[in-house]
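Researcher: Go.
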Amino acid sequence: MGRNSMELLAPAGGPEALKAAVQSGADAVYLGAGSFSARAGAENFSFEELAEAVRYCHVYGVKVHCALNTLIKERELEAAAETAAAICRAGADAIIIQDIGLARHLREMLPDIELHASTQMTVTSIEGVRVLEEAGFDRVVLARELSLDEIKRIAEAARAEIEVFVHGAICMCYSGQCLMSSILGGRSGNRGRCAQPCRLGYTLLEDGKERGSAHILSPKDMALIRHLKELRDAGVSSLKIEGRLKSAEYVSAVTGIYRKYLDDIDAEVTKKDMAELKSAFSRSGFTDGYLTGRLGADMMSHDNPANNSGSVYTAEAKERASGKYVRKIPINIFASLREGGLLSVTAYDESGLCVSCVGNAVAEKALKKPLDAERLKEQLLKLGSTPFEAESAEAEIDEGITVPVKDINDTRRRLCAALEDELARRTPGRVKDIGFSYDAPAAPSAVYLTAEVMTEEQAEAVLRSGAVKRLYAPADICVKLGWYRGGTEIVTKTTDIFRPEKIHTEHVSVSSPAAMRYYGEKAVYGDFRLNVYNSRTAAALACHGLRSITLSPELNLHEIRDITDHFSGADVEVIGYGYLPLMIMKNCPVKAMGHCAKRGGSFSLRDREGLEFKALCGDGCRAVLLNSKPVYTADIIEKIVNSKINCVRLNFTVENSDNCGKIVSAYRDALDGKKAGPMRENTFTRGHFRRGVL
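Model: Structure:
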């Protein structure tokens, strides 16, 4: 895996950055090829460029990981599979995936290539790793929010390799769980098109009063350069540098410094090297807050969300980014020339790989100056324009003979080309001709209501209505509802980010594969955080016994119908009402601004357009940011029903009990065929039911 037990994995947004990564000491690179990459704004690679990139990397023994790590819509499944097949044929070493349905298909279709689970899958526990191991993943990229102890517990128990991010931009929201860019502008982070509204300025409001303005949702970049030994001891396999949107010089500078300290892992990081990292890219410094547990204001770049480093690079970093062969491959050369014979030259590297070439000119008696061993070696050592450098050279030559210098040079060039071919040689993985198999659509059935609540008062209002088949509530609220004996099913909504809980109901709602596995003996319902974008993901999850699956709120009605036409393994649910959670954050933005909801008060963030987004204090000080307006669809419920879903969920967060009752009644009446009026203009949204996302 390179010169240290941990792989150094560098970003390659384009060919120049790829070469910079290799020349700066990366053990592997990750890049986007074709479509479906989570950095759609990067230069990325055509399939022709990918084949060249793979060859270039493999000459140096550097692996290539291709990112196919976006959520895949139903009508894109075939194209995504074709992209994966092209990646495999190009000789890449691994594919990075977010969509679990696509991964399930690729594991069968491409049995030889490694599958890596993207950080977008929000894996925070060994339970999550276990699900992915069973699905055929060889490596799991953990969520960036984990502490060192959490990483260690996972790595020690995992069979799959564990990869963690060590440098670069971090998101305020758990990766894979952010809807902010999607809801506000139609550009989904789950599709590689995040517009970064989190980097804008906001004003913190407490009970409607201003408590300060800043870039409240803008964290500093991560830098774990001082923790490499701890990560090694924790059992981490791969260290990942973020930056597929950054320049070749940036990739060179950061990769070079991490290479230096991986090769001398006990060395103390110098001020000079930290200054070089900051000069390459910095948002007012760096943070290691998630790894060390030091959350709060120190993690944030409140004053300036942009790079304020000046992007200054050393001469060495610039040279490595120039495209030249700076990192040389050591070889040994042996040449033999006999009278009446052809020049024979052999080259071999430290691994024992050996190639030979012979010249085209017959050695003859020299009429003037004969060729001697030193002159022959001198010509053979002219390797400057190649990736090689000679550690030693030997030559045996008969006295008084010669061959044209042109023949020596030509033989040397062919020898180097042959050695490159041999170093780059890989047998591409198998590509099996396996198409997608789809379910027959489910038989039509009456659409029913479900509801999610946060408080006991909301729960009581919903239960009193008698109109809801299933109620999702937090564990502590479910305990308080033990008195209920009606027909509504009480379901414990487990934590959005998995942690084991004591559950008192027979039914649970799960937000992650980890929870799905952990609570598998109970009746399980899948929440929208499972990011179901297509029927194959729904089918993969249904295999674990899910009774219903809530589709991603990023889908429009046509895309929902595409799924229901191809899936019948469980009931299909959509969120028809509620303030959608835009972000779930481990580092509470309210607390980072010096306030706390636990001391009382209601907090929200106001943007530059005057919209207010409520911030709720959640499980373990995790904060949830709600959209400024609720999704409302009672007046267009017929269109929702025509998408052939089974149930409509009403999400209650900040509503009082009276509002909950009124909304349930409006939706029940709408499903019964009664006309429902719209909410007051500019007080609601249709979510993505009409527009969808890019």
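Model: The longest strand covers residues 388-397.
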